[in-house]
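re the bet — no i am not wrong, look at it urself. input seq straight from the record:
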Amino acid sequence: MNDNDGELRSELARLQQEHRDLDAAIEALHHSPAPDLLRLQRLKKRKLQLRDRISFVEDQITPDIIA
């Protein structure tokens, strides 16, 4: 494992943690008496951006296998 691979794995762990945190925040906001719909929309958008970045980083870590 080279330095770049280690950095990618570290970034992946950070992104996955942020994604889980956003999931919890969105869930809590849904159950609040008067949810802030704009904030909810922004959190969901950020969560989608994180999911895309997580997929990209996972692709960078996983070696290409020529079939």
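see?? The chain has a mean pLDDT of 92. told u. also The first helix runs from residue 3 to 30. so pay up
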